[in-house]
Design a protein that fits this description.
Layout lengths: L3 H10 L3 E4 L8 H8 L5 E4 L8 E4 L5 H8 L6 H10 L5 E2 L8 E3 L23 E5 L6 E5 L2 E3 L4 E4 L6 H11 L4 E7 L3 H8 L8 H8 L5 E4 L6 E3 L4 E15 L12 E13 L4 E4 L5 H22 L3 E6 L8 E6 L7 H11 L5 E6 L7 H11 L2 H4 E8 L13 E8 L28
Parallel strand pairs: 1-2, 3-15, 4-11, 17-18, 18-20
Antiparallel strand pairs: 2-3, 5-14, 6-7, 6-10, 8-9, 9-14, 10-13, 11-12, 13-14, 16-17, 19-20
Length: 441
Amino acid sequence: MTDLRNYLSLVTKNGELKTITKPVSTKYEIAGLTAKLDGSDAILFENIKESEFRMVSNLVGTRKRFSLAIGSSEMQIHDKMIKSIKTAKKPQIIKLGKFFQNKSYNLSVLPIVTHFEKESGPFITSSIVYAQNPESGTQNSSFHRMMPIDEKHLSIRMVEGRHLHRCFMNAKEHDEDLKIAITIGVHPAVSIAAAYQAEWGKNEINIANSLLHGKLTLTKLPFSGLCVPSGSEIVMEGKILHDKTHPEWMVEMLRTYDHHRLQHVFKLENLYFRNQPIYHDILSGFSEHRLLMGMPIESKLNGELKKAFRQTKQVSMTNGGCNWLHAVVQIKKNTDLDVKKIIKKTFESHRSLKQVIVVDEDINPNDAVSVEYAMATRFQADRDLVILTKVRGSSLDPSSDQKNLLTAKMGIDATKSLSKRSEGFELAKIPKLDKIKVQNY
């Protein structure tokens, strides 16, 4: 029960999979359909004009399907994530991966989607890259979007300083190429773990195994020697060339165009895929992309803030902040709590954040109207505002100094003042309101 097909069976049973049998094109049409159904159903495309492969999108486009992927309820997502990170364990390695059923040496067999009108080309957006850590010898797994250059080469986006880039720079310093493996079409628990920013030297695939109750299996690849999930739909292996670059630009999770960059180049050695393979496409800047990247960080924030401040109830990465740049922290306020310390800790726990709002436990952190109400009735700008200038922020934010990765950040204490009368902040209630049914009248 640890591959993509098992997960699709669960989604189908829940009535949340739309199957499209009409022929569709990889050029804008699939992206358009995914955008139209954003935030609702997962989609299976069974008839793609340019390929024999099938395709899925919007797999974990809602918190409900995210919780289904990790085997928890929506309310227990963060508890399950935090526990799985703490109890991460190595998967079993088996010889025969299902992806060995077919082999190719040509990228043109893949139904790579063209998503947006001004991108530099089509992109593989669900590609998880596996590489060996040069210091610990462990594997690292992380998401990296890739653009086809020709039938053997892809550009690969690596963020400077992140783990894959560090592995690559180590190889480059020795005038060597970096061997990597790539999977497309895995159980979403594997994707969720790969999106988590584990400590240097830790293997994210072990977190995936924990999320899947220790049932994940891996298979070793012949060229790279790296291990990937045995049930992967599509697997590539090859190397990132140390002396080749190629220009590209793409839409990021803020749904804005990133600036033009010279990216390094991946050379394909082997391409494997299952019978009737299912390609996974993630539409950049839409709900699946944002939840995949943002929810593991949200779990991290919940764990760290609850540990540091016992008054913390929950932390939410807001939809309006693209599940990446804005957070709301719900607390149970008392006399010994310094809210500004909570704001500082939240910024420290996720460097990309540029806004943190702290609210009381009667305010729903996932409801933008409720949060704005707290700001309107409990916040005073001359007393409750924290502003940080010229600090490290997200490279994605187009309003920031993207060259030097510097931004300004704002913290807002929108909690009730303990020095004022409590009745002034109390939300008025109507007795027995929940028992009144309008249809009965």
